[in-house]
Design brief:
The protein is of the alpha+beta class and 186 residues long. It has a single domain, classed as STM4215-like, CATH 3.30.2000. The chain contains 4 helices and 6 strands.
């Protein structure tokens, strides 16, 4: 199974490139102005979305340098995955894949930055809830890989050491997915 397909589904959805079953965008940008917040809290800024299958810095474990320009959403595998050995069969059972979508910003040492990270993580969760709507099942299929279900969605606040190389990550959504390879001969 190629986990890149899973990462690309989420990255394309969050960036607004992948439209819902009715042809409407449901990415981060659509939902960011409507995230519940206290009076005086700013709307999260627009983000640039990267996934580790299409960005060398992220694939190497680093926050892309584009964080200097504005906030980012980083779509990565949060841990390795295991495929059950079903060689020689035409169908594979579904396997668990864990994906993390992290919010990265240069504003890590300000109250506003921490608030924005919390709001951004909630915005990601709202967008992904739409992706996992039953009517969007066909959008969770790409090149023979299908995301069957999201077993859990955890919203995390991250407090990093400012000297850490990836200090710009302030929050994340971690998904536990059930994924099937419908084309196991490839």
């Amino acid at each position: 199974m190629n986990p890149n397909e899973v990462l690309r589904i989420y990255a394309d959805w969050l960036s607004g490139d992948l439209l819902d079953y009715a042809g409407a965008p449901q990415g981060f940008e659509v939902h960011r102005a409507n995230v519940p917040k206290d009076v005086g809290d700013a709307v999260p800024r627009a983000v640039t979305v990267f996934d580790e299958s299409r960005n060398l810095e992220l694939a190497g474990g680093d926050v892309p340098e584009a964080v200097a320009v504005g906030p980012l959403l980083l779509v990565t595998l949060s841990q390795g995955f295991q495929l059950d050995g079903e060689i020689g069969t035409d169908f594979r059972e579904a396997d668990n894949v864990n994906v993390a979508i992290a919010f990265a910003s240069q504003d890590i040492e300000t109250a506003e930055g921490i608030t924005e990270a919390g709001l951004a993580v909630r915005t990601v969760a709202r967008s992904l809830t739409e992706l996992h709507h039953n009517n969007n099942v066909d959008l969770r299929r790409r090149n023979g890989i299908v995301i069957l279900s999201c077993n859990s969605m955890n919203l995390l606040t991250v407090r990093n050491d400012p000297t850490d190389a990836n200090k710009n990550i302030l929050g994340a959504v971690v998904l536990d997915l059930l994924v099937r390879d419908e084309n196991p001969s490839f």
